[in-house]
Amino acid sequence: MRLLAALCVALAATMVPASGQNIEPVAEPLEQAISQGPLLPEEVLRSSALTFPSILESFEREAAARSDQLSADGAFDLMLEAEAYDRVTGTFSGGYAEVKASQPLRPLSGEVYGSYRLSDGRFPIYENFYNTNQAGEFKVGALFSLLRDRRIDKRRFAIEDTRIAASQARLDIMLVKLNVQHEALKAYWYWAAAGSEIRVYEELLEIAQARTIGLSRQVRAGAIPRIALTENEQNVLRRKTLLAEAQRNFANAADSLSYYLRDSTGRLITPTRQQLPDTDMLSALPDMQHLLSQQVSDVLDQRPELQNFRLAMQRASNKIELRRNDLKPNLDFNVELSRDFGAVGDGGSTFDSTDTVVGVKFTVPLQRREARGRLQRAEAELREMELRERRVSDRIEVELGNILTNLNASLELAELADQEVVQAGAMVAAERKRFDLGAGDFFLVNVREESAADAQIRAIRADLKGRLAAASYSAATMNLSELGLD
Q1: Which of 59, 196, 347, 357 can pair with 336 through a Cys bridge, CB separation 3.0 to 4.6 Å?
Q2: What residue spans of 360-441 are helical by DSSP H?
Q3: For 370-380, b where at least 16 C-beta lie within 10 A, e where not — what string?
Q4: Which helix (H) or strand (E) holds 85?
Q5: Residues 6+ apart with CB under 8 A from 283
Q6: DSSP state of 274
Q7: What is the mean pLDDT of residues 390-414?
């Protein structure tokens, strides 16, 4: 509920009142939400999703990919050119100025252009084409590719390639999020399990320490031999050792969890033992029958790795088409219409007309070895990618089957471990009662207590394996809700 409230406050903080005036954000900081009460997995997942560097890096990579897409679109930007020159000295006085606009087109790799040119003065015979009437010359034209570059060229290939690359970058964001949230969830369950083990060993040590007081009183009264007190002190030392190891494991787990638990500035937050939740606050393990009902094919279709492969193969196919285009000859068609306006200029009456010019240009490399080599390489890269996609798809399917097997086994082991805990507790109670009545043995009491503690540890670790398998299944099936990404 705290998490839901924090999210609601965060959304409210982004709203602008009807008056149009901005208000100060009042969203609860991450560190404040984390420090209030027990630490739950939802809070860890929220923290890692918002602040973990790998996720933020993936957003920057996606921004870079979108920038490449914008850059590729620039190949079809409207181009404006201007040119002028004038003779300062010499026999001839001719000069001219020209402004031209050209717009590349995607169909047929075409281009349309228009220009205005104005000349003044006399030109030598070899520059006669610079002459215009006194009001200048307007010209419009178009250029189209009829063979090579008709369907695809480097510019259109770059636009499509960067568009697909941007889609791959968005998939990479999802893949990074899935991996990070999976690892964050695993770190949380290791931390929670380590804290539960400390509780078991503390309780075991407290029992031995409390028994020391009673045994010391009985030794002083001569009711039992001193060896019983010595044996109990040995048990105390052994249980202190177990507790110290559990505390070390908990400290390591807390440090590992702090890698994913961060404040709003990205600084690590090391969780304390006081933030350990009670078992009744944690969600139950999933139902295997519900998980088994999900179709593996549906899972595979949604995996970002395989979607990424499909996009990569589309990029490779486009590259093959571009390389095949390089094998074709060039056949360019050009048409121009020009008209001079105003009084006849120094060039004479021959410039006072409307001119329509149509032309073609044909070029072809005779051997085309470079183009054939590039095509063969592109085709080999596509075949390699198809084989890699099949391998990754098979690996994911096998991993998913292993996850289900491990999860099913973990649930069964957790249930058996819980039953063992109940039985071990009953044995401890019975042995203590026999010992209090004088019919039991102190050694057996210690053995029963430690066996009960071992049963609790096994139950904790069996539950941990189930939690880890469930986290792996959520990541494999892209269960965004369980990973804190919905």
Answers
A1: 357
A2: 369-436
A3: ebeebbeebbe
A4: strand 79-86
A5: none
A6: G
A7: 86
Q: Measured between alpha carbons, how far is residue 146 from residues 92, 336, 363 in Å?
A: 43, 17, 12
Helices of type H across 221-303: 226-258, 288-292, 296-302
- What is the CATH topology of the domain spanning 37-52+167-315+377-476? Outer membrane efflux proteins (OEP) (1.20.1600)
Residue 356 forms beta bridges with which residues? Answer: 337
Token match 């034209």: residue?
Answer: 141
Q: What pLDDT score does 198 carry? A: 94
Q: Which two tokens stand for residue 98?
A: 């020209």
Domain ranges of the chain: 1-29, 37-52+167-315+377-476, 79-155+329-374
| pLDDT exceeds cutoff 80 at 445 | no
Q: At what angle do helices 2-13 and 41-51 cross, to 10 degrees?
A: 30
Q: Are 436 and 157 in contact (CB under 8 A)?
A: no
Number of H helices, E strands in the chain: 11, 6
Report residue 450: phi and psi, to 5°: -70, -35
How many residues would you count in the chain?
A: 486
Structure token digits, residue 288: 């295997």
CA dihedral 112, 116, 122, 128 (to 10 degrees): 10
For residue 460 the two structure tokens come to 């904790």
438: pLDDT confidence band, cut at 50, 70 and 90?
A: low
Spatial neighbors of 465 by CB under 8 A, at least 6 apart, are 406, 410, 413, 414
pTM attached to this predicted model: 0.79
Question: Which element (helix H / strand E) includes 112?
Answer: strand 111-120
CB contact at 8 A, 49 and 181:
yes
Give residue 171's pLDDT band: very low, low, confident or very high (50, 70, 90): very high
